[in-house]
Amino acid sequence: MDKRFENITMTGRMCYIFMCIERYLLALYSDRDWTLVARKMWQWMSYPYWADDGWYEYGGITPNRVLKYKDYDDMKKHDGLSIVSREEYDQARKNCR
């Protein structure tokens, strides 16, 4: 194991991951609005890293989740864990097209 990473906190590691995801999305899809995804990722840092609550907010707007269902009502019917609003779902779905 690389010893250089031992002194980096879990928060620091998560922030680096979020920064990489933002750069990737902006480089690949610069014409789309990734504000919602970025806000959800960075909001996750307000939770303790071991809490699952952050995943339910962010996980509900990832492309594989958004594209899995035909619309917001279908997602709510089949996925009781997602806690995103209809507006957030619609915005995320628009970015996945």
Describe what you observe in this structure.
By secondary structure, the protein is an all-alpha fold. The protein is built from six helices and no strands. It has helices spanning 10-28, 35-43, 53-59, 63-66, 72-78, 86-95. The model has no long low-confidence stretch (mean pLDDT 78).
In short:
It contains six helices and no strands. The chain has helices spanning 10-28, 35-43, 53-59, 63-66, 72-78, 86-95. The radius of gyration is 15 Å and the shape is globular.
| Succession of helices and strands | HHHHHH
Could you tell me how far the N terminus lies from the C terminus, measured between alpha carbons in angstroms? 40 Å
Number of helices: 6
Which range best describes the helical content: under 10%, 10-25%, 25-40%, 40-55%, 55-70% or over 70%? 55-70%
How does the overall form come out from the CA principal axes? Answer: globular
Strand elements, count: 0
Question: Which structural class do the helices and strands define?
Answer: mainly alpha
Low-confidence stretches: none
**Sheet with the most strands?**
none
Strand content: under 5%
